[in-house]
Write a structure and sequence with these properties.
The protein folds into 2 domains: about 140 residues, Dna Topoisomerase Vi A Subunit, Chain: A, domain 2 (3-Layer(aba) Sandwich); about 55 residues, no CATH class. The protein has 9 helices and 4 strands, in the order βααβαβαβααααα. Strands 2-1-3-4 form a 4-stranded parallel beta sheet, with helices on both faces. The longest helix has 14 residues.
């Protein structure tokens, strides 16, 4: 396949929640402050540990069809919680480079998990989770000790999200991650892994007016 015919990006994630969130986010180039780019997003049946263990093998199928690759999985559940996030990422990137992906692939380990991305002061969070107002949701989280006064996001983001959904009697659904990916503001997010994603995408796919 000629370079011109190759797609820009292949993405491998751990589950449907992550696939929905990333598909929605990557479809917002203006908000990401990138040029539009083509991508495919797949989830791994082995969840977080499956992505970590098999991402190098998975990529062999795409080395001639995609210019770049991204891998996402949660630190919790990846099977290497005894090792730092940075070491896990560096070891996988080294393996990818040995397999022909030098400067073409990035590994992002989410600490502790994907839900940390979406806890912000954006009113869309409360809306998607079925709460009438952000202040009501925040008051609930503080009252139930999921959130400390002055903090933006809970220390246990996944459990806090599930508690908020239970309180308003909404079932957990991967569709919420699609909605949050489509609506949530990308400005002001304090999560390091999210900002890592933005940095990588802006380097790979700079806005057209920055080219040349």
């Amino acid at each position: 396949m000629t370079p011109e015919a190759m797609k820009d990006l292949i993405v491998l994630v751990a589950d449907l929640d992550m696939k929905n969130a990333l598909t929605a986010l990557l479809s917002r180039p203006k908000s990401l402050e990138t040029r539009p780019f083509t991508f495919e997003c797949s989830s791994h049946t082995g969840k977080d540990s499956g992505v970590r263990q098999h991402c190098v093998e998975f990529l062999r199928l795409f080395i001639q069809t995609h210019h770049r690759a991204l891998f996402f999985f949660d630190y919790q559940g990846c099977g290497r919680e005894d090792t730092s996030k940075q070491v896990v990422e560096e070891q996988l990137k080294a393996s990818l480079e040995r397999n022909g992906w030098t400067d073409r692939a990035e590994v992002i380990v989410l600490v502790p998990e994907l839900e940390a991305w979406f806890w912000s002061q954006s009113p869309h969070v409360a809306e998607v989770l079925g709460w009438g107002a952000s202040d009501d949701l925040r008051a609930f989280l503080i009252e139930k000790t999921w959130l400390n006064e002055g903090d933006v996001k809970p220390q246990k983001p996944k459990e806090a999200m599930e508690a908020a959904l239970r309180w308003v009697k909404k079932p957990r659904s991967a569709h919420y991650f699609k909605e949050l990916g489509e609506k949530a503001s990308l400005r002001g997010c304090q999560d390091p892994s999210f900002n890592q994603l933005l940095t990588v995408l802006r380097q790979w796919f700079p806005p057209t007016d920055q080219l040349g």
